[in-house]
Design goal:
Order of helices and strands: EEHHHHE
Number of domains: 1
Strand order of the largest sheet: 2-1-3
Mean pLDDT: 79
Distance between the termini: 18 Å
CATH superfamily: Winged helix-like DNA-binding domain superfamily/Winged helix DNA-binding domain
Low-confidence stretches: 1-8, 75-85
Largest sheet: 3 strands, antiparallel
Number of helices: 4
Structural class: mainly alpha
CATH architecture: Orthogonal Bundle
Radius of gyration: 13 Å
CATH class: Mainly Alpha
């Protein structure tokens, strides 16, 4: 499932990006997050860099401050393949 911020640019976030963001918000390192999600720390950084690019953030701090501002506007985007007839 993808997510988006209800804004004019409307970036879409993957489930994995949001999972990495969840642990970043709680102060966990990439290594700690990787252990929880069963992925490599480099993959965690890849997902966080994707979030930074989509939000036009340069740092993790800037990423967090932007997303906290829009936190209540994040809504799921339904995947058409998951809709049953």
């Amino acid at each position: 499932m993808k997510y988006r911020i209800s804004e004019t640019r409307d970036p879409q976030f993957t489930q994995r990006e949001l999972e990495c963001l969840f642990y970043l918000k709680r102060g966990l390192s990439a290594k700690q997050t990787a252990a929880i999600l069963f992925i490599s720390p480099r993959t965690v950084e890849f997902h966080l860099n994707g979030l930074k690019e989509k939000t036009q953030s340069r740092t993790k701090f800037e990423l967090l401050s932007k997303l906290i501002t829009f936190q209540n506007n994040i809504t799921p985007v339904k995947n058409q393949s998951s809709i049953l007839p």
